[in-house]
């Protein structure tokens, strides 16, 4: 009988791997710790200990682990349970979940290479014996691997020693493994201890009488420490005394001041005292008490509250209660809604207790939040984050809020796990015996359906805060306007009229166009040819700003053409329009006003998005043109008019959720108009003003939209009535993917009969040179979901064992959002 561990490795393997450990390791290791393990011929991976036991594997001989990377677990049992649920539900491997869950800084990919730090001469007498051995070895060899160091010291856990050598700046690490994360150090100063006595201090100040600036610095240091009673940062000292850093350095060099460093978190709140939360109005009070009542019976409650009804203030009250009971809160938002606006609002109430987690954060920052959550630190009682924050190591969750729960960006498309953060959050909350509140002005059909079925609690809030009226929505028939020559470019006379009026009153305008770039199709008027992406089956979009044609699927780009590639004609025309073109037209129509644009092209970089929002808040921008980025929970006081340039391309999008999404998008973007006092105005331009969705948007009639869409979903067996799993096959050779998908669909049909659709080529049949085929499995309510998945996995395994199909990539997308 030996000692073994099962390890999750961050690669798509169906099974866990078992490794052999020593008696001492058996006593030391705990589930959730990281270990470095050998894999294959020469690879080393970071794995997570999943189980510790005494059963040797039967199929292979267990290898020894390489080393232990942690002193205590970095992943807890609830997380492992969640990972397991995700792997099973979303039909992927635990390794794939692990890779998505852990900050990359936690994952060692290959052997770390250690070299001597040539920039620094080390006094060898300061090194301990084991440190010296390594340092010495580096005189003879330019680099060492961790594995070599283990051999030199005859010891497995050498990381603490390496860490000490790094701290002493004796060595550096090429592919930093465990030390990818470097805490940020802040420079502090204090008075040298030799001036601790009254008399020596007196002498010092007298000496400094000849160096006024320096004396000033020392006196400022006293006054700051007297005031704050905390260590004094060099930056504060320099700010308050007005002294340059060279003066401070002189004082340090003279031995009057001493510098030292303290580790600090990168992401820090530096605000003042916390504000009290707002008194709720009567509707909010009622909604809050209903939510609490629902929580007595339901684990999940849906809050359907119109835009600007004050949902956030209700969340704040719920959060206060949960914090009082000593538990943690997770506040989930779509990435794009994680703006300074909301962050500041919550920090005003909860100060340092708020931690923020999203993809624009560096790996360092993510590790910090991870550690703070793991330690249940006071700094991470409320985590405000995008979808991946469901992976944080909570140990004591009391509440999860999923705001804008209808947002499709909660679903991860690529790579696996293809999870939906809202649905996973419900499972996570259950594991913690916590509650989940879903909030939206335009709930997903799924959540509203669950509420109607009494699976979720349900609360409505139909009054806007301050009783501001819902915006007045007007539909504009562009076909008619064109016929009567009442269009200037893409602007109807009505839109121009309203814009003129709004600007004259000193209010701001948002124009929504769901496409970026200048125009999506460039067409030759002579032969009809339009330039296509060489890698994908789509037309290239013209971006005027860079004078380029670009593919929005693979990023391919080329210079704009002077003449047609097919016939050489110079008569090229633009079809369709994007945000760039609208921006340009607005500038010509309203030359005296400032125009801004918000889309993927203008918001790259960490603060790109923030800058535009601030400019709008500060009223530096009068008219903002943008894509759906505009719709997400922004609160602008002075925006009175919203123009939707063209509703039709959203409505005609080939997807069974297109109508639901168009409704959500238009209602949300309309909600940006007139959020305070004055009623806002929304103009929607369309070729089809009688479309039911547009009628429902203009009357803000969610219920009608819900009923009508649900009808379709029943009739065509779509979610939420039926569950679905979409299977996508990809290959660069069309014939191969076709044969493979026919085989796959046929096998599925033997089991699921008529509930299998396809194979079909999607509207864009080729992306990045890969041909796609889709197969859809529809699953009736009464059919076991887990049995269905088992059957699919069986078919998938047989598929993979066919030689010809092995190179075909298969993607399983559960729920198909
Ligand atoms: P929602 O999240 O439903 O769109 P918000 O919570 O953003 O609505 O509220 C809309 C506006 O009304 C915000 O500016 C908010 O500060 C204000 N507000 C909401 N509730 C209150 C309240 N009880 N007291 C004062 N202001 C409030
Ligand atoms: Zn041509
Ligand atoms: Zn492309």
From TrEMBL:
Its EC number is 5.6.2.4. InterPro entries: DEAD/DEAH_box_helicase_dom, Helicase_ATP-bd, Helicase_C-like, P-loop_NTPase, PriA, PriA_3primeBD, PriA_3primeBD_sf, PriA_C. It comes from the Bacteria. It catalyses: ATP + H2O = ADP + phosphate + H(+); Couples ATP hydrolysis with the unwinding of duplex DNA by translocating in the 3'-5' direction. Its cofactor is Zn(2+). Zn(2+) 1 binds at residues 524, 527, 564, 567. Zn(2+) 2 binds at residues 533, 536, 551, 554. Pfam families: DEAD (PF00270), Helicase_C (PF00271), PriA_3primeBD (PF17764), PriA_C (PF18074), Zn_ribbon_PriA (PF18319). Residues 292-461 form the Helicase ATP-binding domain. Keywords: ATP-binding, DNA replication, DNA-binding, Helicase, Hydrolase, Isomerase, Metal-binding, Nucleotide-binding, Primosome, Zinc. Initiates the restart of stalled replication forks, which reloads the replicative helicase on sites other than the origin of replication. Recognizes and binds to abandoned replication forks and remodels them to uncover a helicase loading site. Promotes assembly of the primosome at these replication forks. NCBIfam families: priA (TIGR00595). Component of the replication restart primosome. Belongs to the helicase family. PriA subfamily. This is Replication restart protein PriA. The gene is priA.
């Amino acid at each position: 009988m030996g000692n073994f561990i099962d390890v999750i490795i961050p690669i798509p393997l169906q099974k866990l791997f078992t490794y052999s450990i020593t008696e001492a390791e058996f006593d030391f290791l705990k589930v959730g710790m990281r270990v470095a393990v050998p894999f294959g011929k020469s690879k080393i991976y970071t794995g997570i200990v999943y189980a510790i036991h005494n059963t040797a594997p039967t199929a292979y001989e267990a290898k020894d682990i390489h080393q232990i990377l942690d002193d205590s677990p970095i992943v807890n049992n609830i997380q492992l349970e969640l990972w397991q649920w995700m792997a099973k539900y979303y039909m992927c491997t635990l390794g794939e979940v692990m890779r998505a869950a852990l900050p990359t800084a936690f994952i060692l990919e290959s052997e770390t290479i250690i070299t001597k730090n040539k920039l620094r001469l080390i006094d060898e007498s300061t090194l301990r014996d084991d440190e010296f051995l390594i340092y010495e070895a580096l005189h003879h060899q330019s680099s060492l691997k961790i594995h070599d160091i283990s051999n030199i010291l005859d010891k497995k856990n050498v990381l603490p020693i390496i860490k000490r050598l790094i701290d002493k700046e004796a060595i550096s690490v090429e592919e930093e493994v465990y030390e990818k994360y470097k805490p940020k150090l802040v420079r502090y100063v204090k008075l040298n201890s030799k001036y601790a006595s009254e008399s020596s201090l007196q002498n010092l100040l007298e000496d400094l009488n000849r160096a006024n600036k320096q004396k000033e610095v020392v006196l400022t240091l006293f006054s700051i420490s007297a005031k704050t009673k905390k260590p004094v940062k060099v930056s504060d000292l320099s700010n308050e005394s007005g002294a340059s850093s060279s003066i401070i350095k002189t004082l340090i060099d003279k031995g009057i001041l001493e510098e030292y460093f303290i580790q600090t978190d990168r992401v820090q709140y530096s605000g003042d005292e916390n504000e009290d939360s707002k008194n709720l109005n009567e509707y909010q009070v009622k909604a809050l008490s209903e939510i609490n009542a629902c929580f007595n019976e339901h684990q999940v409650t849906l809050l359907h509250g119109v835009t600007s009804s004050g949902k956030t203030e209700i969340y704040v009250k719920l959060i206060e209660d949960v914090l009082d009971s000593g538990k943690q809160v997770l506040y989930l938002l779509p990435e794009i809604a994680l703006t300074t606006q909301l962050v500041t609002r919550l920090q005003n109430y909860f100060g340092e207790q708020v931690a923020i987690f999203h993809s624009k954060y560096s790996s360092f920052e993510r590790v910090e939040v991870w550690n703070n959550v793991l330690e249940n630190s006071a700094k991470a009682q409320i985590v405000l984050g995008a979808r991946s924050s469901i992976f944080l190591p909570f140990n004591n969750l009391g509440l999860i809020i999923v705001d804008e729960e209808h947002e499709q960006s909660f679903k991860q498309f690529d790579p696996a796990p293809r999870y939906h953060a809202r649905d996973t959050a419900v499972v996570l909350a259950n594991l913690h015996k916590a509650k989940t509140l879903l909030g939206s002005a335009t709930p997903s059909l799924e959540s509203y359906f669950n509420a109607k079925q009494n699976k979720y609690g349900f609360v409505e809030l139909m009054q806007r805060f301050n009783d501001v009226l819902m915006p007045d929505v007007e539909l504009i028939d562009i076909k008619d306007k064109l016929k009567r020559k009442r269009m200037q470019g893409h602007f109807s006379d009505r839109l121009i009229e309203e814009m003129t009026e709004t600007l004259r009153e000193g209010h701001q305008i948002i124009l929504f166009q769901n496409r970026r770039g200048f125009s999506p199709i460039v067409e030759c008027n002579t032969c009809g040819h339009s330039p296509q992406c060489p890698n994908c089956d789509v037309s290239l979009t013209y971006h005027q700003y860079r004078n380029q044609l670009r593919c929005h699927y693979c990023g391919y780009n080329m210079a704009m053409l002077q003449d047609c590639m097919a016939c050489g004609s110079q008569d090229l025309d633009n079809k369709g329009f994007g945000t760039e073109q609208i921006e340009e037209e607005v500038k010509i129509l309203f030359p005296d006003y400032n125009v801004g644009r918000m889309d993927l092209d203008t918001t790259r970089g960490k603060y790109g998005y923030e800058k535009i929002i601030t400019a709008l808040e500060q009223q530096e921008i009068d008219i903002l043109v943008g894509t759906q980025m505009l719709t997400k929970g922004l609160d602008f006081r002075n925006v009175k008019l919203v123009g939707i340039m063209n509703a039709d391309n959203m409505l005609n999008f080939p997807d069974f959720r297109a109508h639901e999404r168009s409704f959500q998008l238009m209602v949300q973007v309309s909600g940006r108009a007139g959020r305070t006092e004055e009623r806002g105005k929304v103009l929607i331009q369309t070729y089809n003003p009688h479309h039911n969705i547009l009628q429902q948007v203009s009357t803000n009639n969610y219920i009608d939209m819900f009923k009508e869409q649900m009808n379709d979903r029943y009739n065509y067996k779509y979610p939420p009535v039926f569950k679905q799993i979409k299977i996508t096959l990809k290959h660069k050779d069309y014939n191969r993917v076709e044969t493979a998908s026919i085989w796959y669909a046929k096998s599925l049909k033997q089991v699921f009969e008529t509930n299998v659709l396809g194979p079909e080529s999607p509207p864009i049949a080729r992306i990045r040179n890969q041909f796609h085929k889709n197969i859809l499995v529809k699953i009736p309510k009464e059919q076991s979901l887990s049995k269905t998945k088992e059957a699919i996995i069986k078919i998938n395994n047989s598929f993979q064992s066919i030689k010809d199909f092995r190179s075909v990539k298969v993607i399983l997308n559960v729920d198909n959002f």
